[in-house]
Structures are given as C-alpha cells and as structure tokens.
Amino acid sequence: MLNEFRQDPVSGEWVLFSTARAKKPHPKDGVRFYQSKEECFFEPEKMAQQETPVAIYSHGKLVNDLSADWTTIVVPNKYPSLKKGICNPVHQEGPFTVADGTGFHELVITRDHEKSFAQFSEAETSEVIRVYRDRYTSISKDGCGDYISVFHNHGRLAGASVYHNHSQIVSMPMVPTAIANHMDGARRYFEKTGKRIHDVLVEWELVENKRIIYQNEHFIALCPYVSRAPYEVKIFPKKPSSDFGDISDVEIPFLADALNIILKKLFVALDDVDYVFFMHTAPPKNENPADFSFYQWHLEIMPRISIDAGLELETSVLVNSVDPNSAAELLIKTNV
C-alpha cells in the first residue's frame, strides 16, 4: 500500500499518494452524459446557420467552403471566455495586476455525433491534431497570443457541456502562473545540470521500465511517477522540441497513434471514463523571443475520477489514490 508525498521536479507541486483512499466511496449519479442529435448545436444543418467558420477540413485537407463532405470544422465559441480585440498592456488596478479578457476562443468540432476519440481511426485523430497545429500556428501570430491552450474535455466530470465531440483552443494575453512555474522549474534544472529535465525523466522511466505503456518511432506514453490524478498518462515526443507548433506532418500520425492507443485503453479499462487532455507547451515563439529549448512540450491525459476537496483546495497538494505502477500495469495489459 502506497502512502507518501512526491514532488514534481518541474512544477514543484506536491502529490500525496494514499492508495487507502481508493476505498473511500465516491458519489455517482449513475447517468451517462448524452445529448441526442436533435438537441445538438454541432450537427451539420445547424452549423450552417451559425457564425462563419474559421477553418474547414475534409478528410485531412483544408477546404474553402462548408461542403457536404466536411469532417472537422473550427468556429468561434458562441459563449467565449475571451473575445478578439485590441490587446492592451497588462496594467495595475490598485494593488492588483489586470489584463483585458482579449484573445481567441475557438471550437474544433468533428462531424460524427456518436464518435469520441476512443472510437476514432488514426486518420481521424491525425486530422484533428493537424487542425490543432494549424490553428495554434495561426493564433500565435496575434498580439494577444502570449500563451495558447489546446484542450479536450470528455464527459461531465471533465467539464464538457455538449456531448458532441469537440475540443477548444484559447489564447491569452499573458503566460498563466502554472505554465510560468513549469518554465522556471525546467530552466533552473537546465542551468544547474546542463540537462533537460524531461529528457532525464523519460530516461529514468525507461530504465525503471514499470510505467511505460506504449511507444512508437516518435512518441512514448507513460504513467508519470508523480501522477497528479489516477491513471494520468503523459505522451512525450522523442525529438527535442519546446513548442507544440513545431510538430511536423511526419510526426502527427505517430502522435495520433499513441493518443488513440491510450484513449482506447482508458475507455476499455475504466468504462469510458471522463477525462481531459491538453498540450503542455512552452509559450509560442512568435510572441515570446525567449529561448525555451530547455523545455519539452508533451500531451497530458487526466482522467476525472475524483474531485478536489478541502485539502486540495486549501494547500494545492493533490491526493492520488492509485499507485502509478498499478495504473500502468492495468493499462499495459488492457487489449485494444
């Protein structure tokens, strides 16, 4: 039985591993989140009535119009957290630092109402990743693109309010504190040792050989030693790169392959568990001339099995009730 604190060497965050907590009952409503096509905003006939798409793709290719054959579409969020506009400098309001809520908030919507990523083919996932990359690159040229978040919520516990498969891209006029902390941690390690911390972590995982779930020519997927949530998985590129925008056309199908394998394993092993996945990347180079070569972008998958309670909210110490070794063992033996 695992009962110990572990500190993430990049972010500095502490995680308390307490496998005895797995016996604690978790409330469940017993109802699977579902919306019919009739009540879905993202069905093709309804999409044609909404705002002009930002980008339209058909079977991997960027097209010019909303034809009957589109497979992935990018539209402005109807209820955006941020709005496009003039990016004013960060300023002071008394003792507080304030930035205007200016930026991009876009939805990346796939066509099939009933299919989630766990049912996607490699080609379908490749197209979505290509859309992520293309929009990330375009948005990074904007004056408010100091940081760009690319993420996908699957299920109610992950924050999804619409059943139909979609992802979100949000740009911000500043670098969020959590991201800045990751950059600072990786920078300090590099200055101290001359090594990139993510390279060291992956090399150690390869030597340990307990938590590697899958790898192909360009990517490796593992349950991290300091997992912040039960069954967390990180997918690392094997090529050094700090910026997700640098992913090549050659690498995209390999990332799609790794992501598909992991999400299918989670679907089978944990009964279509709710999850979030996101690209953890350095700030884009277009708006941030600083050298982030000490950092390694990667994709993180966070199943949403438990909710943060008093200890987590007060101290920011996360509690994980599943040993990463056990999580990896289950996912490795799950056939898909």
UniProtKB/TrEMBL annotation:
**Signal peptide residues on this chain, from the entry's feature table:** none
One Pfam family assigned to this protein is DUF4921
Q: Which residues form the active site?
A: 166 (tele-ump-histidine intermediate)
Q: Which domain of life is it from?
A: Bacteria
Q: Which InterPro entries match?
A: ADP-glucose_phosphorylase, DUF4921, GalP_UDPtransf1, HIT-like_sf
UniProt-recorded Gene Ontology molecular function terms: UDP-glucose:hexose-1-phosphate uridylyltransferase activity; zinc ion binding
The record places domain DUF4921 at: 118-332
Q: What are the recorded Gene Ontology BP terms?
A: galactose metabolic process
Q: Which PANTHER family match?
A: ADP-GLUCOSE PHOSPHORYLASE
Record protein name field: DUF4921 domain-containing protein
